[in-house]
Specification:
The chain is α+β, with helices and mostly antiparallel strands and about 160 residues long. The protein has helices spanning about 20-30, 75-85, 115-125, and strands spanning about 10-15, 45-50, 55-60, 90-100, 130-135, 140-145. A hairpin with a 4-residue loop joins strand 5 and strand 6.
Length: about 160
């Protein structure tokens, strides 16, 4: 038996170190947190996608008393983009969240397992990595592709 080491590469930066396009996407994700419907968790999440055609698509979490039928911000944005622009790849996604008290999170919030799987499918579908920007007031994580978060990912291919 041998050990296999898997490595993840995530860059940590401050807002001003990002490109103008990345800063704008994060600002849109922060704004999208205000559209969240989160009466149960009081945890508002916003996402903003940048598609290869330059179009931005926002999403926010939508909760429901029957918890399984709610939807995360990341998936709401990706599915909206798929419905409106089915043949256009996703280039980048920014994700931001607010605490139950309404303050922006100090630390970056990472996508849940279901959202990670949808991001894997999105990358597989278009044969293109999606740059992921996870916003926190203290730091921002920049991740080049979901496989950095899911190195042993499941795909049908």
């Amino acid at each position: 038996m041998k050990n296999v080491e898997l490595k993840t590469f995530i860059r940590e930066c401050q807002f001003e170190e990002l490109s103008q396009a990345e800063q704008h996407l994060i600002e849109q994700a922060i704004e999208a947190t205000n559209c969240s419907y989160a009466p149960y968790s009081k945890f508002s999440v916003g996402a903003c996608l940048l598609l290869n055609n330059g179009v931005e698509v926002i999403g926010c979490n939508q909760e429901n008393a029957a918890y399984p039928v709610g939807l995360c911000a990341e998936r709401s944005a990706i599915f909206a983009a798929g419905a409106q622009y089915p043949d256009v790849p996703v280039r980048m996604i920014a994700i931001a969240a607010r605490t139950p008290e309404g303050e922006l999170q100090d630390e970056p919030v990472s996508p849940c397992g279901s959202c990670r799987q949808v991001l894997i499918e999105t990358e597989t579908r278009f044969s293109q990595e999606v740059r992921i920007l996870l916003y926190g007031r203290n730091r921002i994580y920049v991740i080049d592709g979901i496989k950095q978060l899911m190195p042993l990912s499941f795909t049908a291919f």
